[in-house]
Structure formats: structure tokens, C-alpha cells
Amino acid sequence: MTRSPRRFALALLLAPIACGDDADPAAGADAGTLDGDGDGDGDGDGDGDGDGSSGGDDVACGPSVVRDVVAPDVAVLSGLTVADDGLVVLVSDPTFVAPTTIDRVGFDGGGRTSIHTSTERRRVVSVFAFGDTAYFLERDDAAVIPVGELWRVPLAGGAAERVGDAAFEEAAILGVDADGIFVRRGTIDPVGSVFERIDPTSGVVTTVGASVDTGTPLQPRVTADDLVFVVGGVGADAGGPQRVFALPKRGQDGTPVELWTVDVADDPCGFPLGGLFPTPTRLACGFSGVATRALDGTMPEILIDPDPLLPLNVLVATDAETLYVIETVPNTSRDGHMSRLTTDDPTRTAVTCELGKVANRVVDGFFPNQTEWEVRVGPADVYWIEESFDGTTVRSAIRAAPK
């Protein structure tokens, strides 16, 4: 398998050291509690010292409601997205012997079908479903310099068609909506990323903008109007203040606008490991604490104060104004928690107290990016890819619980 030094360096930049396990193994599935939801209202000055408290309210864990949508298997699952009538996921062989496939599966787990299968040394490295179509980047690993090609395939089945003729090196699909297909291409010299918008019909590529010399953009999200992301510096500035930027997604050759900056010691969201997600009215973030801001970066509010003595609150998904947070656990456990709260109410409600290790998103079809999580919210349920290890084999599954 061809691996360029540039690709390997980019993957290392996107896979920072994992945080420690702050799980609370005492919580049970049927009669446990999820402790420590804060009720702080923040002080509005952006320095992360709002007067919120990690209150003693307990979140009751009711009877198990988790189900397997795709049963555990040795194949690696990644790129989970929600389509009009089901889920789409990339299936890879951990030994790189079998071809990659893109599978569609119903929300109830039925009707699993492979809608695309790679051939020879070609591999799908990124996929995103929108409407009735799955868009994906596929490359030929037998090439001297493998580059991605953009393709689309109907979810109902049929032949895949290439979208334009552009080549995308070190790229991943960030999202797809009515404005186009949004792709990030990583750069090493200078360190950063180029953000592009592709017309899904013509394949015409427009450069939305670039972020360079400030560190690799992490957790890029497509909002209603912008592409937002967080950077933390490079070289001597690495690990310095965390800066959140926005690029108007319908523009061309734009310059990122800084929404806010925060010192690591004062950051309630634990960047770069903490999740960054948009809602219709706010930008939310969370790792130990949970906080939100207006979409322009103003009006900071702390919903849950960070507390190193309590389980984590890693923000992994949003649905309208609802935020979903998880407690991380190892892949040998299923006693983690997922809970939900809203942007205007810090009260948490348990989604499940039987959470295993939620899988990280995969970079370049191979490397786990430990700042991204495989969690998606559907019409009635929240879905996630979960990894388990029985002492011999690592398996991946898609699990779900009512949202």
C-alpha cells in the first residue's frame, strides 16, 4: 500500500494524543445515575470563568433502550451519515485485502445493501450522503501519488458516476447541502487546509478559502452560512490559544474571520479535543464543560462548568438546539453515558447508560482522528459507531437509541 510522507505527516497532525479515561464505571444500565450537570449561566466576558456550578442533580438512567442496527463485525465502519430514508456507512477491511464498500441500511437495521464496491487497488476514503445520493472520494492506491476522485452513486442503486475531473490530494468531504459538496484538502507546507465547494452536477470546483500557518484546522463544520473550524497554532505556537474561525461558504477565495480566541487554561470546551458543532442559533462546544456562543462568536454562555473530578461531556452531535454529549470509555466497557441538553437549558437527560467506545472518524481512510466522533442524529434516533474488544478481536457496530 502506497503511503506518502506527506500523507503520514498530515494524519499525525489530525490525530492528537488521546485524553485519559474519565469514565465512571459505577453507573449501571438499568438503575444508575449520571452526575454533575451544571446550571451555570456564564458571565458573558468570554474568559471561561462563569459562575456555573456542577450541580448535584442526578440524571436517572432508565431501562435499556439501545439496539444494534448493524451487528458487531471485524470490518471497520466509518463515515456514518444520515440520508433521507436510512444510513450510509463506509465499510473497510482492516487488513486492506477486501475492497471497500459503501453500504446503505434502513433506520431499523433492515435492507442493508452495498451500493458501491471498489475494484483492484482503488479505495473509498471519504463518503457523505445527501438526499438520495452518496458522494464519495475514491483513489487508486497503486498510483505513485494517489489522489482522490469525486464520485456519486444513487442510494437506490445503480452505477457510480464521476463528478467533474478534479483531483483531490489529502482530501475529505466535510458535508453536502443545497449549496454544494464541501471538501477540505490538507497542506503540509504551509501547514493548513484549503476549503473547496464543488457543484454536484457540473463538478466545477470553487475555492472557498484557505487557512494556513495557523495549524491544521480541526473539527470543520458546515453551518447554514459558513464553514467553521478551530486551530491551535504551529511550531512554537502549538498548544497556544485556541482560535475559532469562519469562512462564508458561498464565497470565493475568502479570508477566514476569527470569531473568538481563548487561552487553554480558560477554555471551558477543552479545545482541540472538545467538540465544536453548530445549531440554528448558536455555536456549541464541549469536552469537560459545555458552552455556547452566538453564531458570530459573541455572547458566550457556559452551560456546564468544567470539572476534572466528574465524567467528561464531549460534545459529539447536535439536532436543532439539542446537544448530545458523551463520556468516553475504553473499548472493553459498555458503562459509558450519552446525554442530551439544549442551548438554553443545562438540564441533562440520559439517552443511554450502556455506551461503549464511540469510534473516532477516520482520516485518509486509515488513521483515527481523535477530535472527531462517529455520531449522527436521525429522525427518531441517535446513531453511533461503537468499537468493542474481547481480548482478541476489535469489532465495529452501529448502535442506536431514541433521541
Overview of this protein structure:
Helix content is 2%, strand content 51%. The chain has one helix at residues 5-13, and strands spanning 32-35, 58-61, 67-73, 76-82, 87-92, 101-105, 113-117, 122-130, 133-140, 148-154, 161-168, 171-177, 180-187, 192-198, 205-212, 218-222, 226-231, 242-248, 257-262, 275-278, 282-286, 290-294, 301-304, 314-319, 322-326, 336-342, 345-355, 357-358, 360-363, 367-373, 375-377, 381-389, 394-402. The strands form 9 sheets. Strands 3, 28, 31, 32 and 33 form a 5-stranded antiparallel β-sheet that branches. By secondary structure, the protein is mainly β. Strand 13 (180-187) and strand 14 (192-198) form a beta hairpin.
A few lines on this structure:
The protein has 403 residues and is mainly beta.
Supply database-style keywords.
five-stranded antiparallel beta sheet, globular, 403 residues, 51% strand, 1 helix, disordered N terminus, mainly beta
Write the layout of secondary structure elements.
Blueprint: H1 5-13, E1 32-35, E2 58-61, E3 67-73, E4 76-82, E5 87-92, E6 101-105, E7 113-117, E8 122-130, E9 133-140, E10 148-154, E11 161-168, E12 171-177, E13 180-187, E14 192-198, E15 205-212, E16 218-222, E17 226-231, E18 242-248, E19 257-262, E20 275-278, E21 282-286, E22 290-294, E23 301-304, E24 314-319, E25 322-326, E26 336-342, E27 345-355, E28 357-358, E29 360-363, E30 367-373, E31 375-377, E32 381-389, E33 394-402
